[in-house]
Amino acid sequence: MKLTDIQNRAANFIDGPCLVLAVPGAGKTTMLLERVKILSKITSPNKILTLTFSRTQAIDMNNRYTGDDTNIMTIHAFCYLIIRNYLKKFHRELRLLESTDTYNKYDLVKRIYQDINNKKPSREDILNFFTETSYMKNAMLDESYLKKVRIKNIEKVYQTYENFKKINNYIDFDDMQILALKLLEENPRLLKSIHQKYEYFQLDEGQDTSLLQFKILKEIVNLNNNFMVVADDDQSIYSFRAADPEYLLNFTAYYPRAEIIIMNENHRSSKNISTLAGNFIKENKFRYEKEIISKKDMGDKIIIKTLHDSYDQYNFIRKNIDNDKTNAILFRNNISAINLVSFLLEDGIDFSINDDFLDFFKSQIIDDIFDIIKFSEDFNNVSAFENIYYKIKTFIKKTEIEKLNTKPLNQDVFDFFYNFIDYDRKNSLYDIEKKLKHLRNLPLSRKISYIYKYMGYKEYASLKANKFAEEVINKDLFIESLINFTQDLETIEDFDKKVLSLKKKIKMINKSSIILQTIHRSKGLEYDKVFVVDLNKNEFPIIDYEKDPIKNLEEERRVFYVAMTRARDNLYILATKKRNNKKALPSEFFTRIKYLNK
């Protein structure tokens, strides 16, 4: 394949360190594979190591490479190779916990949590445990980081989990990297063998690298520094996985002789799209200066539009979809997909969506609210009460809850507690009882609204907020979407049937030209038409006030930049005046992009 001048310059860079900054659609994969062919003329192909962050990219590169045997793999796979080969010499083996039949890491942590806390963990607790501990390891933080994580006894759970792995010779994905770095730092002969084995190192998707991964790379390329990193600091959107564009911004501090090549030609998007996206991302301060240049025509005008509500937004999208082209509806979080999926299914329109969209219906918030409803229907439901008593301001103590095993079978929970709690708490509990009785006569959607607004659950959800739990950061929107979804339902059983029907319908859909995706999922992909939806205040950007607000806003800007640059020909940026029957305002990104598009 014929390369452009700038691709050619990067592909023909041979010795020393080099940072290639590739804008979206610059043809970085083509360039990297061409460079492997060029390097193969001066050294053996198996002396060239190409590492990438994602398994999908590694598979794609291997499929596209037509030359002799070469090494293209993920960083995790490379670390596993180091560990396996090292331990083989000592006739030892470590088993990967993720893939073993005997143990599943999620089930294992569930059991450990239950043993330590005498209660079952929520699904969120387990997911957050792995997200937080993975972040801690990748950012190379010490265990004191766990003190601020809102999971009961997380430090004990973590230590027990780590000890179990150690005793039973297991490792998980994050351990691979930690152990590989430890082996490289402590075994000069091992490091020397890698220096002898590989002469040239390439890293793709460099903006997704964590501090831990960067240190591993620094060790292995240290001898001759024949190291090319291909990255785009403007597409660094995985801080929740401890990826940090700072390593790229300081590249010349680590490699003073490094050459920086900017592949700024976009072969994907029209001039209109490239120019607007480029002007928008320039508002970030912590980045490399680069001018994105489209190699295509001006193209169609970008449509930036405010619609009345979610249904109006959907109708606009439906009218502008072209079934002969690829169409992507992109959103900042999965909550936006709820209404879209419902509307598309109602109209019998096929679409594709990732399975993780259905995680919306597995949320701890839904479990909590449904437990409150179940208890309202049966005051003798002890297990439901044990799950909710501290979430709705009953002021019952844990030591008092333990007395429930002495409650007579025919006595309801309230009557049991009225027998021994003090006067003030009795009044508070009586108020809760009245509210729960009131719930019985409401349809499901109004029950949800009432519990959230008037029973103290909103305050509880705020206290439980976790920086990685999307639905808790957007709790008001999450509840509104849930209310909207249950509008025509009377009972929890109706809800379960509707969700099951939804799952079946989604599974039955064949491949479609309409893709629904979070922006994070869309990274690295491209479509003819892109609709970026719900650019409303507090939806996009999502400002997490626990984080550094400037860094947070810059990352949100990068997320929007990624969304815009998925589009080849047509880009639609949409906001609504109403969201789930409530007034909505356009976000600062919507206002800014409208101004830049004048």
TrEMBL record:
Keywords of this entry: ATP-binding, DNA-binding, Helicase, Hydrolase, Isomerase, Nucleotide-binding
Transmembrane segments: none
CDD domains recorded: DEXQc_UvrD (cd17932)
GO molecular function, one term: 3'-5' DNA helicase activity
Catalytic reactions on record: ATP + H2O = ADP + phosphate + H(+); Couples ATP hydrolysis with the unwinding of duplex DNA by translocating in the 3'-5' direction
Domain UvrD-like helicase C-terminal positions: 271-524
Family annotation (InterPro entries): DExx_box_DNA_helicase_dom_sf (IPR013986), DNA_helicase_UvrD-like_C (IPR014017), DNA_helicase_UvrD/REP (IPR000212), P-loop_NTPase (IPR027417), UvrD-like_ATP-bd (IPR014016)
Segments forming domain UvrD-like helicase ATP-binding: 1-270
Positions contributing to ATP binding: 22-29
UniProt-listed GO biological process terms: recombinational repair
Enzyme Commission numbers on file: 5.6.2.4
GO cellular component terms, A-Z: cytosol; DNA helicase complex
Sequence similarity: Belongs to the helicase family. UvrD subfamily.
Name of the protein: DNA 3'-5' helicase
Organism of provenance: Anaerococcus lactolyticus ATCC 51172
